[in-house]
C-alpha cells in the first residue's frame, strides 16, 4: 500500500510534484542548491490546483517527514492553525495595501518552530498596484527562513518586477479521465456520474466534485446550458440575461446569508453582547459596520464569480457546436445535449460560432474589470441571439 502524501490531490501534476520534492530535499541537506528559492509563483487555469500545490509545498516545508499529510504540522497548515504558515486569500475584489502591511509585520519574525516561515497568497492577481509594490520590497529583501508562494491564473497577472524574482511553476489542466478516476477512487462516486462531472467541469477537480455531489447545482447548470437555445431575438436575449444574473445572485445570497449572520453574531459576542452590564463594548457598532461592508464586497465578488462560471459553461455549448461543424462529433463536452447541438450547428455558420465564443470571453474580461453585471450580460445575449 502506497504511503499518503500532501501531493496526492495534485491530479495530473507529476512534473510539479517532482520539482517541489527536490526543493524540500534541498532544504534538508543543508547545502547551497539551485533547487530551493525564497519566492515561487504557481500559475495555471482554474481547477488545475495552483493553490493546492502551494499549500502542499507549505505543508512539506514545515513537516518533519517532508509532507506526510497525517502529522500535526501537516493538518494544522490546512486548518490555518500553524504558527509559521500564513495563508492569504481574499473574498473581496482586491487585496489592499493595508492587508499587505499587516502581513509583512506578522512575517518579519523568525519561524517559531525552527523550520520555515511560509506565506501562501492564493489570489496574487488581485493585489492592487500599491499592495504589489509593498510586497515587492519584502520579496526583494526576504527573511532568512521565509518562503513566498504566490498563486495566479497566468504569469501576466503578476507584477513584472515580482514575477522576475520568483521561480515559476506552470500547472496544467488534468485530463477528464484522471479527474473521473479520482472522483471514483477517493469520493466513491459512480463511474457514470464521475465521467459526467469530469467532462463538464473541464478538468476542474473541485467543481467536478461539487457537481457530482449536488443535484441542485447540476439542475442549475442544466438551466444555464439551455439558455442559448431560447435566444430567438432581442426580447428573449434580455430575458435570458435577467435569468442568468438572477441565478448567480440567488446562489450568492444562499451561500452568504447564513454565513453573514453567523459572522455578525460572533463579532457581537466578542464585543460583549448578551453579557450582564451596559451592553456591547465601545467600538462595536463601527466594527459591525466594517464587517457588513466586507460582506457586501464579498457578495459582489460571489455574483461575479457565479456569472463567470456560467459563461464558461455557455462557452462549452458553442465550443461543441463548433466541433460538430468541424465534423468531430466524438469530442463533445455536453454529450447530453448532442441532438440540440447538432440541430443548432446545422442552422448556423462556423464563423458565427467563433464570434459568439469571442463575445463570451470579452464579457468575462469586462466582468473582471468590474463592468455592471446585468448590462454586460444583456449586451452579450444580444450578440448570441444574432
From TrEMBL:
One of its GO terms (biological process) is DNA-templated DNA replication. InterPro entries: DNA_pol_HolB, DNA_Rep/Repair_Clamp_Loader, P-loop_NTPase. Pfam families: DNA_pol3_delta2 (PF13177). One of its GO terms (molecular function) is 3'-5' exonuclease activity. CDD domains: AAA. This is Unannotated protein. It comes from freshwater metagenome.
Amino acid at each position: 500500500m502506497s504511503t499518503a502524501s500532501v501531493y496526492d490531490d495534485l491530479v495530473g501534476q507529476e512534473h510539479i510534484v517532482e520539482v517541489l520534492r527536490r526543493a524540500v530535499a534541498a532544504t534538508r541537506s543543508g547545502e547551497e542548491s539551485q533547487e530551493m528559492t525564497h519566492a515561487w509563483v504557481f500559475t495555471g487555469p482554474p481547477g488545475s490546483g495552483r493553490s493546492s500545490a502551494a499549500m502542499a509545498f507549505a505543508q512539506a516545508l514545515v513537516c518533519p517527514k517532508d509532507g506526510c499529510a497525517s502529522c500535526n504540522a501537516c493538518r494544522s497548515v490546512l486548518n490555518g492553525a500553524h504558527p509559521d504558515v500564513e495563508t492569504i486569500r481574499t473574498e473581496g475584489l482586491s487585496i489592499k495595501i493595508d492587508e499587505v502591511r499587516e502581513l509583512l509585520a506578522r512575517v518579519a519574525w523568525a519561524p517559531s518552530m525552527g523550520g520555515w516561515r511560509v506565506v501562501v497568497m492564493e489570489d496574487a492577481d488581485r493585489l492592487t498596484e500599491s499592495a504589489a509594490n509593498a510586497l515587492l520590497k519584502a520579496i526583494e529583501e526576504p527573511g532568512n527562513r521565509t518562503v513566498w508562494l504566490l498563486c495566479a491564473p497566468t504569469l501576466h497577472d503578476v507584477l513584472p518586477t515580482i514575477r522576475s524574482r520568483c521561480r515559476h511553476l506552470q500547472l496544467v489542466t488534468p485530463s477528464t479521465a484522471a479527474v473521473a478516476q479520482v472522483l471514483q477512487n477517493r469520493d466513491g462516486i459512480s463511474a457514470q456520474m464521475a465521467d459526467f462531472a469530469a467532462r463538464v467541469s473541464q478538468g476542474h477537480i473541485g467543481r467536478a466534485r461539487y457537481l457530482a455531489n449536488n443535484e441542485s447545482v447540476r439542475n442549475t447548470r442544466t438551466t444555464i446550458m439551455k439558455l442559448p437555445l431560447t435566444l430567438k431575438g432581442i426580447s428573449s436575449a434580455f430575458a435570458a440575461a435577467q435569468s442568468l444574473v438572477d441565478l448567480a445572485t440567488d446562489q450568492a445570497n444562499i451561500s452568504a446569508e447564513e454565513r453573514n449572520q453567523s459572522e455578525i453574531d460572533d463579532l457581537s459576542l466578542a464585543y460583549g453582547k448578551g453579557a450582564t452590564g451596559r451592553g456591547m463594548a465601545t467600538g462595536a457598532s463601527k466594527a459591525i459596520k466594517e464587517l457588513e461592508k466586507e460582506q457586501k464586497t464579498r457578495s459582489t465578488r460571489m455574483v461575479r464569480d457565479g456569472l463567470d462560471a456560467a459563461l464558461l459553461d455557455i462557452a462549452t455549448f458553442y465550443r461543441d457546436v463548433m466541433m460538430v461543424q468541424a465534423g468531430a462529433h466524438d469530442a463533445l463536452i455536453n454529450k447530453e445535449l448532442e441532438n440540440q447541438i447538432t440541430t443548432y450547428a446545422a442552422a448556423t455558420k462556423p464563423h458565427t460560432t467563433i464570434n459568439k465564443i469571442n463575445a463570451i470571453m470579452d464579457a468575462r474580461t469586462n466582468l473582471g474589470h468590474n463592468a455592471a453585471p446585468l448590462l454586460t450580460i444583456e449586451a452579450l445575449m444580444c450578440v448570441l441571439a444574432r
